[in-house]
Amino acid sequence: MKNFFNSLFWKISAVFLLILLIISTVYIYISVNTAEMYFQETRQKLDIKVASHIAHDNDFFSGDSININALKDVFHNVMVINPSIEVYLLDTTGTILAYDAPKKSVKLKIVPLEPIKKFLTSNKETFLMGIDPKNPKRQKAFSAAQVFDKGKFKGYIYVILGGQEYENASQLVFGSYILRLGVRSMIIALITAAIIGFLAIGFIIRNLNRIVNVIRDFQKGNLNARIKLKSKGELQEFANSFNDMANTIVNDIDEMKRMDYLRRELIANVSHDLRTPLSIIRGYIETVLIKDEKLSAEERKKYYDTILSSTDRLLGLVEELFELSKLEAKESLPDKEIFSLAELLQDIHQKNLVIAKSKNINLNLDISENLPFINADIKMMEKVFQNLLDNAFKFTPSGGEINITLKRKNDEQLIASITDNGLGIAEEEIPNIFERYYQVKRISIDNKQGTGLGLTIVKKILDIHNIKIEVKSELTKGTSFILTIPVAKHTKI
Question: 453 lies in which domain range?
Answer without folding.
Answer: 335-486
